[in-house]
Design goal:
disordered N terminus, about 45% helix, 12 helices, about 5% strand, alpha/beta, about 300 residues
């Protein structure tokens, strides 16, 4: 009796194990093993995290230099913020703020703290001002004036450029940890020289002291002039690497991937007052680039 009873219990255990094994495969699908342990719980999907980048911010502040101020786009030697690519109201430009917020929204919830002549070392102060508005997005375009100096030796060092940008982001983050930042690459200054040097008036204006490190002696093609321009171009590319590197460490910072630097602008995009700053058309192209980058879906 005892042997028979033991065999019965053994057979029942084998059948039960087989049934449980089949049930486990059905419950988890395919050949996946069933959860281990008598108290195993059903696996719940993890909640979706909130995206770090909002493609529809509801307010915009701009920091930077004369490009963002619309300098020389409307009249000579004057700021023209209404045509600014970032926050302007001009209908031909359709600024980033207008595209994101609409005309009335841009008028109420966008602010321009850029300053003509500003360099990267000036950005922390501008960021502090922008932070008082509590914008959901801050645009950054700075660096051209760090390369456009009286001489190659006067250009901002790469280390100081990095320090200035890091301090600017830290200033913003200390006040607004969740505000997004869009960073434009520094424009291609060597292309500026190659496009503008064909215009006699433009070259005369450059002689007044516009970006001497790149634009001085515009017709000179000797080895010294070539080396000077190449050195400036290399510095701009190094600045852009700094912008990309520092921005990549902040989940709410988006670099344009070099889109402004790579843009193949022509004389139509240059101010005919100085053949250096963007014209209205150039400002519109900058707005195009910014809007595409800010609203793009990224993994």
């Amino acid at each position: 009796m005892r042997k028979h009873s033991h065999r019965s219990r053994t057979a029942l255990a084998v059948v039960a194990a087989a049934v449980l094994g089949i049930a486990g495969c059905d419950a988890t699908g395919g050949n996946s093993p069933a959860p281990h342990g008598a108290t195993a719980k059903a696996v719940r999907p993890s909640p979706k995290s909130t995206p770090a980048w909002d493609r529809s911010p509801r307010s915009v502040a701009a920091v930077g230099d004369s490009i963002t101020r619309g300098f020389d786009a409307c009249s000579v030697l004057s700021d023209c913020p209404e045509v600014s690519w970032a926050t302007g109201s001009d209908t031909k430009v359709r600024s980033l703020a207008v595209r994101l917020l609409g005309r009335s929204g841009a008028a109420e919830r966008s602010w321009n703290y850029a300053v003509t002549g500003a360099r990267m070392s000036d950005l922390p102060g501008q960021m502090a001002q922008a932070a008082t508005r509590k914008p959901e997005l801050v645009t950054v375009m700075a660096g051209a004036n760090d390369a456009c100096r009286s001489s190659v030796s006067a250009m901002t060092s790469v280390a100081d450029f990095r320090t200035g940008f890091e301090e600017a982001l830290e200033t913003l983050r200390s006040a607004l940890p969740r505000t997004q930042v869009y960073v434009s690459s520094v424009p291609d200054l060597k292309r500026l020289w190659s496009q503008g040097r064909g215009n006699p008036l433009g070259k005369q204006v450059w002689k007044l002291g516009i970006c001497p490190s790149m634009l001085a002696d515009a017709d000179a093609l000797d080895s010294a002039a070539t080396l000077r321009r190449t050195t400036v171009q290399d510095r701009v590319e190094q600045y852009n690497k700094v912008l990309e590197d520092v921005c990549s460490r902040d989940e709410r910072c988006r670099f344009d991937g070099g889109a402004v630097f790579d843009y193949r602008f022509g004389t139509e995009q240059l101010s005919h007052w100085d053949w250096f700053h963007p014209s209205r058309n150039g400002q519109a192209r900058l707005a195009d680039i910014a809007y595409r980058n800010i609203t793009a879906k990224r993994a």
